[in-house]
Amino acid sequence: MKRIVTIQDISCFGKCSLTVALPIISACGVEACPIPTAVLSTHTGGFKGFTIHDLTKEISPITEHWKTLDMSFDGIYTGYLGSKEQLKIVSDFIDDFKKENTLVFVDPVMGDHGKLYAGFDEDFAKEMVSLVKKADIIAPNLTEVSYLLGEEYKENFTDDEIKDMLRRLSALGARTVIITGVRRGDKLGVFAYESEKDEFTHYFRERINDTFHGTGDVFASVCSSALVKGFSVKEAIEIATDFVVECIHHTAPDKENHWYSVKFEECIPSLVKRMF
After folding, report:
1. What is the DSSP string of 44-92?
2. What is the pLDDT of residue 197?
3. Triad 12, 43, 109: Cα angle to 5°
């Protein structure tokens, strides 16, 4: 069985980050090992009065113990990291645990819709570049691409502009770059670039006029699992995109009651069929 360690926060309610990653990675047939960077009572999108307990000081003791156990991982998947200090600690973790066949998948979570999330600034984005340089695969959305490259954000980029950004991101170090949230008329999709093949690929589905929290985490969890299991980049982005679309379609009729995330649990049977 393949094994992924995933490093990000956990929202006790709301289904983001580890609350999404653990069940989805497991459903894909991959052993999931979490390192929580913070515990939140709920995610921060739409909830008021949520609590946060930072776990930065707990990360290094966990990794030091793991070193004594001679732990190894087929994949290292990083998501939301809340501070420059955490970026440095996770960077050190990659140095300590990455082996020849370990796939490092970095989702450089920083913002969306042209804006950084609360608590982040341009200095944080510059520090994120240092972590991105250690990745084999990165999966930013267009907002995160803009901050990583110092580009002005816009909602629509041409194919040539996307390809140029993919090449420039790959030049930072990642052999594969996946850009999510690319719009093409009534469609929304993903562009990818594999530097070793010098090959571009893309995949689009219908654009749904509904927004749900956590769909980026769903995509990254499926995509990283598929890649660790040996699926091609093209196959991985198709499986991940299809699953996100299915989850949104399944949840949209009940959005009044389930506005905080998608009902991915009830869609897992179709994911299992694709992954095995």
Report:
1. SSS-SS--EEE-HHHHHHHHHHHHHTT---SEEEE----SHHHHHHHHH
2. 97
3. 115
Q: Which amino acid, residue 102?
A: T
List the structure tokens of 239.
């499986």
Q: Average pLDDT of 209-236?
A: 96
* Token digits of residue 221: 């969890």
Best CA proximity match to 59, nearest among 40, 74, 78, 31 = 78
Q: What is the pLDDT of residues 164-173, one digit of tens each?
A: 999 999 999 9
- The DSSP line for 2-43 is -EEEEEEEEESSS--BHHHHHHHHHHTT-EEEEEEEEEESS-
Give the DSSP H or E segment for 236.
helix 233-251
The residue assigned the tokens 């990000």 is 8
Question: Can you tell me the mean pLDDT for 98-123?
Answer: 94
Query: 155 pLDDT band (50/70/90 cuts)?
Result: confident
As beta bridge partners, residue 187 has 184, 206
- pTM for this entry: 0.97
CA distance 89 to 82: 12
pLDDT on residue 209: 84
Q: Give which of 217, 210, 223 is closest to 258, Cα–Cα.
A: 210
Torsion of CA 44, 82, 236, 246, to 10 degrees: 0
Q: Which two tokens stand for residue 92?
A: 């050190």
CA distances, 122 to each of 30, 38, 64, 77 (Å): 35, 22, 31, 23
Distance CA 27, CA 64 (A): 28
